[in-house]
Design brief:
- The protein has 165 residues and is α/β, with parallel strands linked by helices.
- The protein has a single domain, classed as Uracil-DNA glycosylase-like domain (Uracil-DNA Glycosylase, subunit E, 3-Layer(aba) Sandwich), CATH 3.40.470.10.
- 33% of the residues lie in helices and 19% in strands.
- The longest helix is centred in the last third of the chain and has 14 residues, at 147-160.
- The radius of gyration is 15 Å and the shape is globular.
Length: 165
């Protein structure tokens, strides 16, 4: 299997809530963009929460909105071996350096894990003493949750973290 390397974090001093996925899928790695698969609901959910059509924006514009609103994006894994995009296929994973988040995000108030594979590593983020949430995955593989149900769960975490009025 080929060793895959993830994407750099989208974080900074303005980050209040950090959403951690597991590892970018094939489409995201190919495009070098977070949540690049057209069926992933990440950008659609954020757009619905903020009343901004993020899907219609270019990637750089999306990231500008994310940063402006205090959201950070990263993954728990820095690298891994995997065929396809499913989390269940991840092998020999290497965790990201979470110390970077503590150094770069002085205004961080909470961590949210996007899906179960990411949440498996919540013990690392819970050690920071901040609220840690498990969000339903925005992946197309998580078809058991409706868009509305996912949106409600994300809304609750974003409100609790001060990212929504």
């Amino acid at each position: 299997m080929t060793r895959l390397v993830g994407l750099p974090p989208v974080i900074g001093p303005q980050t209040r809530l950090l959403v951690l996925g597991s590892f970018p899928g094939v489409a995201s790695l190919r495009e070098q963009r977070y949540y690049g698969h057209p069926q992933n609901q990440f950008w659609k959910i954020l757009g619905a929460l903020w009343s901004v059509d993020l899907v219609a924006l270019g990637y750089a514009e999306r990231l500008a909105v994310v940063r402006e609103r205090g959201l950070g994006i990263w993954d728990v894994y820095a690298a891994c071996e995997r065929e396809g995009s499913l989390d269940t296929a991840i092998r020999n994973a290497e965790l990201n350096d979470f110390g970077l988040v503590l150094r770069e995000c002085p205004n961080l108030v909470a961590i949210a894990h996007n899906g179960g594979e990411s949440f498996r590593h919540a013990r690392h983020t819970q050690a920071w003493g901040l609220p840690v949430y498990r969000l339903p995955s925005t992946s197309p593989a998580n078809a058991s949750w409706s868009f509305e149900r996912k949106l409600a769960a994300w809304d609750e975490v974003f409100r609790a973290s001060g990212l929504l009025a």
